[in-house]
Design brief:
With about 290 residues, this protein is an alpha/beta fold. The chain is built from eight helices and 14 strands.
């Protein structure tokens, strides 16, 4: 079992016609990661607080359709968080958020995770917005102490971070509890640190997504591997990094048995992310699409 913790929200995605129209689509980095894992055939549970409003119901319906376990989902009457992405010509997205008083911010620390849980993934808005951020941080520390593989994707959203210096300091405090740190080049620049320092603080590997230039991993042992991105017609990049998270977790959370085949793991993640980029919104691929 892989547990993914964090927000589920609605992306209001711009569409060409009619001019100025916005299409509601399920989103949120952790939500997309859980959805992608389910579609890849992993045993996965989503751990969050989701609104009881219509948007919340539609979010959970999407997870159910992908086979995601919802037993760790908390419900509340608060509204669903909304995100409005603006798309650049290359398909990359920037976001404006509506988060005041929303359900996912009210997350509280759950009890024990399901028996057989092997990995925990956290990241994005859920680690930036209180009071839920402290509960997710407590979950990370607790489950790391139990020996779970932990993946952190900070997925920085500057508009949600009121005190960048405090966030950067808090990020460094998470690293001793992180097995795999995955982040984009943009995230790395915003955080301002060095991969070597992050590795020394705790993670066994740092995976860097580099857009059209592919994926790179550096390990604590000093190994470095890079795979090229697959060339595809890009609709947008929404959900691509979340699909990378899912692919990494799917390949890394199995029974331990020798060194990690990082080139193979990265190639699998690059293939999955490329397929996501060919579709509008966060629409990760199914396992059958990666079998060829």
């Amino acid at each position: 079992m892989i547990v993914v913790g964090g927000e589920a929200l609605i992306d209001l995605v711009p569409v060409a016609q009619p001019p100025g129209a916005l299409l509601p689509r399920p989103g949120g980095g952790p939500y997309n990661t859980a959805l992608a894992l389910g579609r890849l055939g992993a045993e996965v549970a989503f751990c969050s607080r989701v609104s009881a409003d219509g948007f919340g119901e539609s979010l959970l319906a999407g997870l159910r359709a992908a086979g995601v376990d919802l037993s760790l989902v908390q419900r509340g009457p608060e509204p669903t968080t909304l995100a409005v992405p603006s798309l650049a010509p290359d398909g990359s997205a920037a976001y404006e958020f509506y988060v005041e008083g929303t359900a996912d911010r009210q997350f509280s620390l759950p009890g024990a995770l399901p028996a057989g849980t092997r990995a925990l993934a956290l990241g994005t808005c859920s680690l930036a917005l209180e009071p839920g951020a402290s509960a997710y941080e407590a979950l990370l520390r607790r489950e790391s102490g139990r020996g779970l593989l932990t993946l952190l994707d900070p997925n920085i959203r500057p508009a949600l971070i009121a005190d960048p210096a405090a966030y950067r300091a808090r990020f460094l405090g998470w690293l001793p509890y992180v097995s795999v740190l995955k982040l984009s080049e943009e995230d790395a620049r915003w955080l301002g640190g060095r991969v070597s320092d992050w590795l020394a603080a705790g993670p066994s590997a740092v995976v860097l997504t580099r857009g059209a230039r592919g994926l790179t991993v550096r390990t604590r042992e000093g190994a470095q591997h890079t795979v090229a991105a697959r060339r595809v017609a890009v609709a947008d990049t929404i959900g691509a990094g979340d699909t990378v998270n899912a692919a990494l977790l799917h390949r890394l959370s199995g029974p331990a048995g020798g060194p990690v085949d990082w080139p193979g793991v990265l190639a699998y993640a690059a293939h999955a992310a490329a397929l996501t980029c060919t579709r509008a919104g966060a629409e990760p691929p199914y396992a059958v699409e990666l079998s060829g």
